[in-house]
Each structure stands twice: as C-alpha cells, then as structure tokens.
C-alpha cells in the first residue's frame, strides 16, 4: 500500500465534501432569503430555521476548507524507524479479537473512510485518544486506550 495514494484519496474526499457542502450552503441561503420564507405571522419560523441551517452549513464548509488546507500542506514522508509513528503514517492495527484495521494518521479530517483496492482505511488524528497513543510507537508495540469506560488494546502490526 502506498501512503501517497492514500494521501491523494484524502484530498479527493475533502474536495468532494467541500463541493457538496458549498452546494448545500447555496441551497440553504436561497431558502433563507427566498420571498416565500418571509414570515406570515409571529409563529412562522421557516426563514429563521433556513438561516440557521445556512449558518451551520457555512461553518461546516469552513471546517472542511481548513482540513483540506492542512492536509494539502502535509508532506508525506517515508516511515522513519528511528522516530516511529508520526503524522502521515499508514498503520495496520490488530485488536484483542484479532480484527485488523488500516488507519492513516492525518493532521485533520478525522473519520474519513477510504477504499484503496478493496482495503478500507480510516483517517484518525493525534487529537483522538488512539491517534495520541500511537505517536512515537513502532511495529510490534501495543497501545491501550479507554473509550466509554472500556479499555481497548491494539497491536501495531505494520507502520508505513
């Protein structure tokens, strides 16, 4: 697996999300400012609700734009066996039930689900408990996190 390809998939997904959100912002703005959204009485809140939706969509669009910019600025480097896992690493983890998952430690854009040749890859960031605990680890290391009062243990199978 090539992490440069994964990085490009992240950028493509963010660009697609940004375009979709921009269309949603435009639609919400149109709905909020349309003449039919003008209140007919003091209980008519259609226009107000549409403006709240437009504002929320605009905030989401800005979050995606920032994530895209941060991810575009990421220089994907080869794994350094001396430094261990750092931002830009592509990882294979195994949990206590021997389930395997591939993760990309990104500077932003947590939770993206990517598909590379049938292999699912999820982006995480160092802001997550798992991402934080993985920084500086090496293949063969174990990490343990507490999620919702439950301890989860993972073994780093591979780090690229």
TrEMBL record:
The molecular function GO annotations come to: DNA binding; translation elongation factor activity
Q: What are the record keywords, sorted?
A: Elongation factor, Protein biosynthesis
Which residue numbers delimit the Transcription elongation factor GreA/GreB C-terminal domain? 97-158
Which interval of the chain is the signal sequence? none
User: Organism's domain of life?
Assistant: Bacteria
InterPro entries in the record, alphabetically? GreA/GreB_C_sf, Tscrpt_elong_fac_GreA/B_C
Which GO terms of type biological process are on file? regulation of DNA-templated transcription elongation
Q: Which Pfam families match?
A: GreA_GreB (PF01272)
State the name under which the record lists this protein.
GreA/GreB family elongation factor
Looking up Gene3D superfamilies in the UniProt record yields: Transcription elongation factor, GreA/GreB, C-terminal domain
């Amino acid at each position: 697996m090539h992490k440069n390809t994964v990085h490009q998939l992240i950028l493509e997904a963010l660009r697609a999300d940004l375009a979709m959100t921009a269309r949603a912002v435009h639609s919400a703005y149109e709905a909020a400012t349309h003449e039919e959204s003008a209140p007919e009485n003091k209980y008519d809140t259609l226009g107000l609700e549409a403006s709240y939706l437009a504002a929320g969509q605009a905030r989401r669009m800005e979050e995606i734009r920032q994530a895209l910019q941060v991810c575009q600025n990421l220089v994907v480097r080869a794994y350094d066996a001396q430094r261990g896992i750092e931002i830009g690493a592509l990882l294979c983890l195994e949990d206590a039930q021997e389930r395997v998952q591939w993760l990309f430690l990104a500077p932003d854009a947590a939770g993206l689900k990517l598909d590379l040749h049938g292999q699912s890859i999820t982006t995480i960031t160092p802001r997550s408990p798992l991402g934080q605990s993985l920084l500086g680890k090496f293949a063969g290391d174990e990490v343990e996190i507490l999620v919702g009062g439950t301890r989860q243990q993972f073994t780093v199978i591979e780090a690229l």
